[in-house]
Fold each of these.
Amino acid sequence: MLTEAVGLRFGYTEEERILDGLDLEVRRGDVRILGGESGKGKSTLLRLLIGLEKPIPDITGSVAGQVFLFGEDIWDVPGVRVRELRRRTGYVFQNNALLSNMSVLENISVPLSYHTDLPDEEIVRTSRRWIDNLLLTGHEDKRPAHLSLGMQRRAAMARAMAMSPELLFLDEPTAGLDAKNSEIMLSLIGNLRALSNVAILMVTHDLGSARFLGGRIHLLLDGKLRPARTYQDLLQSPDPRERELVHDDQETRFG
């Protein structure tokens, strides 16, 4: 098991539970899509799973359950161990989180320089390979401000892949992109799987991406995670809220 949530309950107050008794498993080779209404906890769930948000379980009921990363309870191990486990993952933030004073090449090199003992020439070689894989060749010396949003997102993805992660977290990788660049992004994500067999857990408003990537969709509604299903299953769902989310996705893609 790469990551697992068991009975996860989370809220900043007892009255406002963002996640309410949620269970999730991601195994090797999985592609899981997290969909649902905006602002209802999908990105929070990603941060909890990777240990970027690590609340202390309390007695009020606002926080409970367990979160495992590579089989270890990240709420019950020292912070240094959480950081060690996190190195086996990649994370692409919706805002890309690139360092503005560094070039594309330098941004991608950061985790390799910080977390490995590789010689400089090997770090550059690895970084350039991911620049090529993410269609950024010719832009490696540019700073983020001189890149389009799509290129910034691809640079962030190259940086996330530089450490050869076993599990890749993607937070709205197509957000803000037009239809053409969204298709490019999904194609590149599919290529990442072919190149590395990385498992993917992706938050997205674009539920149709599950068809392209061969993944299954979990909908987060009312703090609970619905069982994983295909896009076609959701089209035929008897639940009007589920059908509405798929309908909204189709309007976004084809309207």
Amino acid sequence: QMQLLGMQNLHRVHSYGFVSQRYMKLAGASAKGLLLISVKFPVGEDLPDSDKAKKQILSLKAKYRKKYGREPNQFVAQTYDAVHLARLAIEKAKSTDPAKVRDALRTIRNHEGASGTFNFSKSRHSGLAKSDLVLVKWEDGRFKLADY
């Protein structure tokens, strides 16, 4: 649509909801130059070895490839984290009562997930921080860490 409107020379930044191989393949050449905000999972291979998320990301990706024979996307990481965080909250609450689980989730700190380091509170519901996000680009048939 931006090309049709003559806006292809503008910088384009899209949300994490479009960090999907399927969307980029559908976009074809239109995805060139597009930046996307993302958790680190799709570009785990590009992260420096010093990044504490890299080891878990690469491990989860390898397990997923082995089991399903294809590349995982960021939604795999988000689902993986959600299940583990729910388990932790239920264990901390010693209950499945929704209010008790919610209160227990709010106490989780420094949980290293595939999407980042989770720290919850009464006012912090996503658990992630800006430092858990990166800019990515679609290049050579895969997401790569953007140099910004």
